[in-house]
Known about the structure:
Helix 3 (54-65) crosses helix 5. This protein has five helices and five strands. The protein is an alpha+beta fold. It has helices at 14-23, 33-41, 54-65, 99-104, 124-147; strands spanning 28-30, 46-48, 85-88, 108-111, 119-120. The structure holds zinc ion.
Amino acid sequence: xxxxxxxxENDRSDVDLLSLAKQGSLVLLTSDEELYRxxxxxxxxxxxxxxxxxxxxxxxxxxxxxxxxDIDTRESRCPKCGFTLREAAKQDVEKSVPVATFKVYxxxxxxxxxxxxxxxWQGSHWKKIEQTLxxxxxxxxxxxxxxxG
Length: 149
Ligand SMILES: [Zn+2]
């Protein structure tokens, strides 16, 4: 949603994850200390994600990689396939969204990947993501205030 290219894998072996990261020149984000150490040892850039909450973990990654934690829908990527999104006219998504959703929302975004074409709107899931982003930003502010005295 933030516009950063990301791949989420939770059912791959460590060996697979390491080779995926290496081949794609990707940064391996993991909370598995052993995998983190193996990655570092093998020259795969890796970051050990720690924190009790989603916001804490997100703040840690954002701090390490200087990530912007604001959603700019012009830069958002489809969470499902990674393609960019484009804003869609309301009438164009009528057949693709639930009736109640169509009634309540006026702004919609569509994945530009024709094989995906998933439609997004700022519903409860979106609001939950924004809550997590706000909490993460607050943690980063507190931290930088503490560091600057
Ligand atoms: Zn997509």
